[in-house]
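Regression test case RT-17, inverse folding.

Input:
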């Protein structure tokens, strides 16, 4: 699991650097999406660390939480699409894309 957490650490640091660069270039919309992605990596990192430290939790608890995130954010995307809220849909799609990356890396490390 250390490799998984290290991956998330790297993604958070890369995201922060990307946000700073995009902001410096005046590309605020792109920076906002980078903030969303970086936040997802940070949330997954925090949750994973917490669950790994919790007695009786561990890998299965992380997998369950990642699935809860996927379910919740997918529902939010459906709701945004239902109401033609393009901005909210774009945010939810960004969150889900970052989460797919997290889940793929988690599966690699877990296997």
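Golden output:
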């Amino acid at each position: 699991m250390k490799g998984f957490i290290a991956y998330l650490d790297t993604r958070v640091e890369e995201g922060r650097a990307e946000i700073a660069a995009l902001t410096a270039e005046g590309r605020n919309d792109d920076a906002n999406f980078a903030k969303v992605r970086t936040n997802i990596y940070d949330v997954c990192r925090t949750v994973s660390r917490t669950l790994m430290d919790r007695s009786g939790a561990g890998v299965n608890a992380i997998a369950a939480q990642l699935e809860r995130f996927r379910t919740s954010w997918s529902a939010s995307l459906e709701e945004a699409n239902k109401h033609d809220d393009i901005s909210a849909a774009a945010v939810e799609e960004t969150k889900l894309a970052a989460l797919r990356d997290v889940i793929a890396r988690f599966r690699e490390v877990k296997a």
